[in-house]
Design a protein that fits this description.
Lipocalin, two-stranded parallel sheet, alpha+beta, nine-stranded mixed β-barrel
Length: 282
């Protein structure tokens, strides 16, 4: 019992000694150095992108455009171009995989069949096909953009003229019509279209596929006292052909028609040869 009491007394004494010396030790310990201040980094401010239809964007001072494409246009087929784009003679040397499609197309038409008519199955035709088919296109030109609506499936294309750059390929939403950015070069509108969707239903001509690497540069002029629209196209797609795929198409201004709503419905296309299973080569 006495031993327990002494041990308890010793514990109490040590506790009291700790309370007395703790302030002394704390007073003698050097103060901790303050944490270094975080370095100041100047972050450049990035102005938000304005919509092409934003009033502030439309109101920005700009040189007047050399011409205005507002109106309805119908493609000029007086040259009797065969195919969808510039005719078979303009097709460049195709890469082996693309050549297989072209060969299959040529074999199919010899048998009176069609090959991979995805447009007849209501897949979007996309650029450049909507710019070359026998359907009218309505165009509305503003200082910041040209809005094009093709009667062919009512497909819409926008050419931006407000100085923006192409969207980063890593974040862009790729589409069948791509992303078109235009700039003026004298009396010519130069349009650079990239960022196409990579899809097996994409074609630039019959039996000629297109990949997501497709790039189209158009040189657009208004000629014949504003009655004719001329578009010179240069297409590159290193996955499907070598070098450049080039040609020129023209459109005539039409003032007595307006485009109508046209929908593609597969069940209404069943009477067409291209969508008949008996002649459709997949």
């Amino acid at each position: 019992m006495t031993r327990l009491y002494i041990r308890g007394a010793s514990t109490a004494a040590l506790f009291a000694f700790g309370l007395w010396i703790a302030p002394v030790v704390a007073a003698q310990a050097p103060a901790a150095a303050p944490a270094p201040a975080a370095p100041q980094v100047d972050t450049p401010s990035v102005p938000p992108t304005l919509s092409a239809l934003a009033p502030d964007n439309l109101a920005k001072p700009r040189p007047p455009a050399p011409f205005n494409l507002t109106g309805n246009w119908f493609i000029d087929n007086s040259g009797r171009i065969q195919g969808w784009l510039f005719g078979p003679d303009a097709i460049p040397k195709l890469k082996p995989e693309a050549q297989k499609h072209r060969d299959a197309y040529l074999a199919a038409i010899k048998e009176g069949k069609v090959y991979r008519d995805d447009i007849g199955q209501c897949w979007p035709a996309g650029v450049p096909i909507i710019m070359t088919r026998v359907w009218p296109i309505a165009m509305i030109q503003l200082p910041t953009a040209i809005y094009m609506v093709s009667e062919f499936m009512n497909s819409m294309r926008v050419i931006y003229l407000d100085g923006r750059s192409h969207t980063d390929p890593d974040v862009v939403v790729r589409t069948f019509n791509g992303e078109s950015i235009g700039r003026w070069d004298g009396d010519t509108l130069v349009v650079d279209t990239r960022n196409f969707i990579d899809d097996p239903h994409r074609w630039v001509d019959q039996g000629v596929p297109a990949s997501g690497d497709l790039r189209i540069v158009e040189r657009i002029r208004l000629i014949n006292d504003g009655k004719t629209l001329e578009i010179g196209m240069t297409l590159t797609d290193p996955k499907n052909w070598e070098g450049e795929y080039k040609g020129t198409r023209r459109w005539n201004r039409v003032n007595d028609i307006d485009i109508q709503e046209v929908e593609c419905l597969p069940d209404l296309n069943e009477h067409l040869q291209s969508t008949s299973s008996g002649v459709h080569v997949r």
